[in-house]
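W.,

You were right to be curious about this one. When I first looked at the sequence I had no strong expectations either way, so I just let the prediction run and decided to look at it fresh. Below is the sequence, 380 residues in total, followed by the output.
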Amino acid sequence: MAEAYIVGAVRTPVGTRKGALAAVHPADLGAHVLKELVRRTGVDAAAVEDVIMGCVSQVGPQALDLARTAWLSAGLPETTAGVTIDRQCGSSQQAVHFAAQGVMSGTQDLVVAAGVENMGMVPMGANARFAVDNDIPVYGEGWTERYGAQEISQFRGAQLMCEKWGYKRADLEEYALESHRRAAEARDGGRFDKEIAPLAGVARDEGVRPDTSLEKMAGLRPLREGWAITAAVASQISVGASALLIASERAVAGHGLTPLARIVQLSLVGDDPVYMLTAPIPATRIALEKSGLGIDDIDVTEINEAFAPVPLAWIEETGADPARVNPNGGAIALGHPLGATGAVLMTKLVHELHRTGGRYGLQTMCEGGGQANVTVIERV
């Protein structure tokens, strides 16, 4: 099988839903990172065969095949196609998988994997409002027959995880505080500078709260009475975009590109859709088994902090060294622009491996429907 390489990885700062990036049209968010990816890699844009872009709420300004409109909005060649995909929070990680699979199959040589989400302009769940507004059930009869009329949501899933693994509110808040501490240290220390393409006067991630504390977190109300989940231990509603260029060995040589990482393993697993957030655990086991690696071989892990119990349970079940997991903070501090997050995490992972000299990196995240992607890469 042919090899697939990451030869470029760039992202916007992750903005807050009321920050400066919230006024930027999603197509322009995407266009910004696409133009910067082409500039940084020096690739002939006309040689790019496809743009695969993750976006979750594909409605309004995020409708009409955002991948294609973002590429054209960037002023890039009309000959390059684009497709927009939705695997919920893992949408742009799946974009990386599809791009790599196209290259590894030998049918493509240069593919962009990207993600965009402006949650300030298009609220989470906006594309499901059609059903609600027209008195149509979001789930059909077959689903209800199988799972009943119980609530299906990421919020309930996070609470169910707390109950299953025995996490108390204090456990979650301590994890969240550490996420902010690591993120503030990384941001203020310039660790993200090389991977970020500033936009709209913003050059740094906006969501980090270096002045937060356990006392401040303790003052927040839980999402529901008796729950351990509060806003402090959940990912932030955000705005952002990211893009990576995936290339074959032939393209690397022919276009004079510089590989940053080699794709080692691509895995995908489904798990309980009611718990929703647990699939990274079995998905990681499968990915490590298929790659022939152990958890101690992984130098850096990026796991999306949708809610604090997700990484806590993953660390507990895999035996990973907590110091190697989200070493520069995660979505609790840095934000979670849904369809963009997969590409953002991969961009962070690639750059962190090069900063530290680590060899193997692993990325995973929970996804709606009880799914998870796992990607293993090797620094080049």
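Here's what jumped out at me. The radius of gyration is 20 Å. And, maybe more interesting for your project: The chain has 13 helices and ten strands.

Coffee later to discuss?

I.
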